[in-house]
Amino acid sequence: MRDAPVESVQEALAPCTWPEAKAPALQRTLRAVTERCGKLALDQLAGMPVAEARAWLEALPGVGPKTSAAVLSFSGLRRRALPVDSHHHRVATRLGLIPASLAVGPSHRVLEAMLPEEWDAQQVYDNHEVLMLHGQRCCFFRNPQCGRCVLLDLCPTGQERRSPEGAGAATSGG
């Protein structure tokens, strides 16, 4: 992928949004890994503390908090890092875990700090997956399905939306 024609990479990424932007960005990042490591591998991250491994990854072009956490969590490294996507962020905001003013980037550290210290990498991954799926399947950006939400009793946003005063409340916010 690093050395392939950019058009071939775009074709491989076609199911994703913005493949024409992601293909050259991905190639830049893969070249940067090769320059820093002398090879295209991230084995050295396995022995680093998670915060150090995340900083190493985030120093690469195009890598932010979500990507660094995803690489550490989803890869064979299986490290304890919490990726926060837009769905996860929306659910956390509506549940009152984070303020609506907190951007997705900084929310990674805040939400990860809320997790029990004894949780291992799999439990952190499971937390990410459950909140992401809940945002995709119930807590939609527009028209969240509060009436069928398993978290309704814990959700200040859902409680407000269900009250007579909140019946006409905005559906996209926190």
Short summary:
The chain has 174 residues and is an all-alpha fold.
Write the layout of secondary structure elements.
Elements: H1 6-12, H2 19-37, H3 50-58, H4 65-74, H5 86-94, H6 104-114, H7 121-137, H8 156-162
User: What do we call the CATH topology of the largest domain?
Assistant: Endonuclease Iii, domain 2
Largest beta sheet, briefly?
none
Domain count: 2
Q: What is the CA-based Rg, rounded?
A: 19 Å
Q: What's the pLDDT, averaged over the residues? A: 92
Quick one: how many beta strands?
Answer: 0
Distance between the first and last residues' Cα: 39 Å
Please provide the ordered H/E string of secondary-structure elements: HHHHHHHH
For the record, what is the CATH homologous superfamily label of the largest domain?
Helix-hairpin-Helix base-excision DNA repair enzymes (C-terminal)
Number of helices, where a helix is a run of at least 4 consecutive DSSP H or I residues: 8
Strand-residue proportion = under 5%
> How does CATH name the architecture of the largest domain?
Orthogonal Bundle
Low-confidence stretches: 169-174
Q: Indicate the overall shape.
A: globular
